[in-house]
Fold:
Amino acid sequence: MTENDFLPKPYTTTVENGAVSWQSPSNIALIKYWGKYGEQLPQNPSISFTLDACHTKTTLRFSKKNTPGSNYDFEVFFEGVKSESFAPKIEKFFNRVETYLPFLKHYRFEIHTENTFPHSSGIASSASGMSALALCLTEVAQMFTTEKLSSEMFLRKASFLARLGSGSACRSLEGPLVVWGAHPKISTASNLFGTVFPFEVHPVFQSYQDTILLVDKGEKQVSSTVGHNLMHNHPYAKQRFRQANDNMEKLIPILKSGDLNGFISIVENEALSLHAMMMTSMPYFILMKPNTLEIINRIWKFREQTGSKVCFTLDAGANVHVLYPISEKEQVDHFITNELQSFCQNGNYIIDHTGLGATRIEI
Ligand code: DP6
Structure:
């Protein structure tokens, strides 16, 4: 498929006003997207667990303007309160997707959004937020035509649009494992949108647990977008993109067989490679905090002492995602409360697990 497949046919129906609502999950990458080109296209394939507990619910209300303006007309309400802070990101998103959603300047929008996770938790809400908004807009677009998209094409289009809002958002529509980015061994994977990992997945990975340790809830000093851009002249970029491709190839049989040792070595290698890219870019930066390292060392020690299969991954921040099979839940819960919780800011953490993706909400 190409970008052109997402261009709409001329609209045949008009709608005065309406409202749609979607709930989208967050996701945590096992193989990381870090580096992009063109319009939000990834330099390497990535794969993520879709999370269940951390999600965004968005309701989009729309009403036709008397005359289409030259600007986008929207207001954002975050948890019931009008918020200006999301406006620049949404304006940029509308600009990028207008070709595919040519009705945007003809309507006034109210975007009501809320998260199940605390806003200032340091957890990126852009993946769940952008995918929920993209799903709402895809549903609105369907109202202007009698030719309805198949459910597969609907999700592809929404994922394609979500990607233009935030790359990782295109992996936040389905579950439990979503791939984004072309790979020679995964013929269904595309740079344009996320798709469900198409091969057999061992049951152990269908109920994987993720406890997110909130090490630092402050604003990140360097945004993901800036970090991605620093991969452009990065001395190790080429090797990093090759490494992600190799790790993806190795992960396919691991996901099938349930080889947890293999899983651990790839997932932790990816997390540390992502942060290594940050530390070796120019300018260089460090998003891990001392407590991030404390937690990593404790996890390694615990694994060595108990034979547990617990492991960690990191996103672009100081928080640690502690990953483990559901069979170890009790043991790892104890370990977290006894040994790791004290390294979290105000002792905060969020218990999550893999989920199946976004859902439409009847309003
Ligand atoms: C480290 O998707 O937040 O979480 O496309 O600029 O919005 P933009 O970046 P974003 O980057 C996510 C980076 C990551 C790895 C990943 O989720 O694959």
